[in-house]
Amino acid sequence: MGNAVQTLEQLEQQVKMLQSKESALKRLLEVEHILEATFDLRKLLNSIVSFAAELVEAEKGFLVLKEDEKDELHVEAGYHLRENAVDSSFPLEQCVCAKAFQSGDPVIVSTSHQESLKRFVTREEHFRPIDRSDCEFACTPLKTRGRIIGMLVVVKGADATPFPKTSVELLELFAGQAAIAVENTRLLRQVASTTRSIIATSIRALEARDPYTRGHSDRVAVMCEQICRKLGLPEEHIETIVNAAKLHDVGKIGIADTILHKSEMLYEEEAGIMREHPLVGVRLLEATPLLRQEALLVKHHHEHFDGNGYPDGLSGEHIPLGARIIAVADAFDAMISDRPYRKAMSRAAALAEIKRMSAVELDPNIVSSLIALESGQPKV
User: Cross-referenced InterPro entries, in alphabetical order (predicted)?
Assistant: First the structure.
């Protein structure tokens, strides 16, 4: 009878293990789909941490990456953490996962009898189950190219069911996914940065051939940053918009100098060629995955608020916010710069023209931000 009960318990454990592995496989496939759909590393890592914590019935979870050349850990993602935990940093030697970093193997750490870890958990209260100082941490290394780049950590209260061996195996699967995501994103960022630099250099070379447009893209980028900050946009949005502003005229690389530098008004056919430059720019940028957001803004920076712009005739808030910001900065810088067919306007005259274009070609809210910024500038 005892053997039969033992066999039944073993079967139940095996069934539970198979169910856990099936759930893990489904979650891993979900992670794959997220990875294919987005290059947002924070979103991806948050999904990995939450999926992993839920599967092993942990109360909390977090993922840390080791900062290059430093023995510090930076919290990149979290599950049920307290406010301000994500984006915090702390020394590696004081972390519960220090032993796992040293050994390179998964480690389960209990704080019950380790005063130094109790002190860590009390101080870094974001990471412990609410109102408990005794916890169990399952720490799983993120490895890439033979080195440890971070750690996936899930947390239970010490009075909960301990992490079984199967939990460690499941966590290793998710840590592997996280390591791949981090490495791929870092490589893509390097490619995007290099591509962005090459294109920006090409634009400067293009503008340098024409004294009337020299420095235009850089000035537009500076103005866009000022407008973004006036609007209170998040830092990551500002970075994308400023980068797109630097690249907004990249499509003009393929346009003949006879059209670009013409001193009279363009013929309709020439104007049609000029209107192609946003689409040419998109084709150049979207080949690099991490430049697709910039590509979208480049594509739509000549849309008009009333829907009469190009290339798609978008209107109002259907036009991406970054493109609306670039449109205002682009128009204002063009007005206060000399052109072959006219002299530069004064800033006051340019602002008056920008006001006239408000709600017609340009977003009124962004126009208001530019006016507010210019009110603090010396008038020319």
Answer: GAF, GAF-like_dom_sf, HD/PDEase_dom, HD_GYP_dom
